[in-house]
Amino acid sequence: MAQDVMPPLGNWEGESEKLLKTADAEWATPFEISGYIESPDYQKTMNWLNELCESSEILRSVVIGKSAQGREIRMIIASGDGLFSAEEIAASEVPVLLVQAGIHSGEIDGKDAGMMLLRDMAHGNKKEILENSRLLFIPILNTDGHERRSRYGRVNQRGPREMGWRTNSRNLNLNRDYSKMETEGIQAVIGVINQYDPDLYIDVHVTDGADYQYDITYGYTGDTGYSPAVEEWLEKSYRTEIDRVLADHGHIPGPLLFARNGKDFSDGNVEFAFSPRFSNAYGDARHLPTVLIENHSLKPFRRRVLGTYVLIEGSLRLLTAEKEQLRAAIESDKNLRPQSLVLEYGYNPTASDTILFRGIKSRARISDITGRSYVEWLGEPMQKEIPVFRMNKPMKEVSVPKAYWIPAQWQDIINKLKTHGIKMETTETMVEKELEQDSIQRFALATSPYEGRVRYSDFEITPVKRKVRLPAGSVRVPADQPLGELAALLLEPGSPDSFFQWGYLHQVLSRTEYIESYIMEPMAAKMLKNNEDLKTRFLEKKEKDSSFANDPDAIFRWFYTQTPYMDKEWNLIPVYREW
Q: Apex CA 219: angle with CA 347 and CA 99, to 5°?
């Protein structure tokens, strides 16, 4: 077993251990009954939660979706004032926390922590939390992956005894799906966001990778996001309070950690620039404060669950105390109307600052098996200042138009925009307008699929203005709306998470009409004879481009593109900009 060869583990005890119930206590969770080493399967989880909800007037279980294999995706609503409908909750002045567990279902700490907290709010000493806050809790988002469980689910994670699988039953990673929204789980959670309008969103994960002292790490998008006021609140108010609460309970909180050299932190930490395929960046793009939790996989399951409990409870209490400040930040960001938008950030090779890193000593060893160097973690705590590098270098930036137009025939794109909650106007008659769209000059598709789709490895596009006729049922997506930035990130081809880059518009790459050489040869000769400008351009191209000059097919294609018979829609991306 991998547990037998994991790095050394030190002793730990903390104030949060007082939250645990013994196995014989009333309403002990399956996690507690197991001696804090197991997480229950789907059916046991739902049975326990259903019984808990039936026993308490402050809890209600609702179905928010159904998995590919037919399992219900459930959400528990904890409400102290008797309001449970989406309409009532969205309209209420009481702040709402949305917490999801099991998006990667082997990383299941949030489920067992949430079950304990719900129990303590229903039958313990935590009911007062709900006097001024509300909790929406999704115990298992990836229900199918949760049931692909075994003792061999995650090789580098200390418990629980059996763990689920990262991807769903169609081998799709839900935390790469927020922009394209192909999985039932992400469709369900975006539906919750649109309907219940939460004030804060927490996504609970467990790390891969290196060893260090921190047991609970978390973060958000930082200075590469689209919600600056929200980010300031998260950094100054949220982190300050949650770090304090965790430390008071014996935990060691830290920032999200990504080793610059991919092994240890001797070369520093990288603050990764997430894109809207991920939960935290998606939330930021729609001005929903979103926190990504990464509990440390090498810490015991028991300790991770307790830290998650403390973090969720602390978040609820902070929402009560800081409701007005947080909502003011959200409103400020929703009213932003940027004239330009950075679509993609790259790695900045210059360190931005340093942090005092609470690490674990390690040494390099040479493998007897491969002959290659690897890291051996020694289990001894250490501290040192390390540089922090950020992926905050703008790589692609665009001006934001007044609106985007999508022709009626691209209903899959239109429906995805609607599901995201993006506002649009639908035409009832044909519309003729001069608009801008992008022409694909060259492209290369990736050699292998990613998340079930074939993306581009490279492409070049050029904007062109055209007078177009859009059929009835086409949509106009105004940029002047709270989700205007999200719309741009989905529709601008240069955005890594655009529908174009996800491969939803590959159809435009195919030519469907051709011309035979016995037609093209006399037609080309006639064109050269009658059009001096065309003749000049042709001769210049032959002179400057030897590969073109020596390729008869390329020459025929060039002449074909100069004729009115050429497909005028070929390689044109069917997303239009209105300036």
A: 135
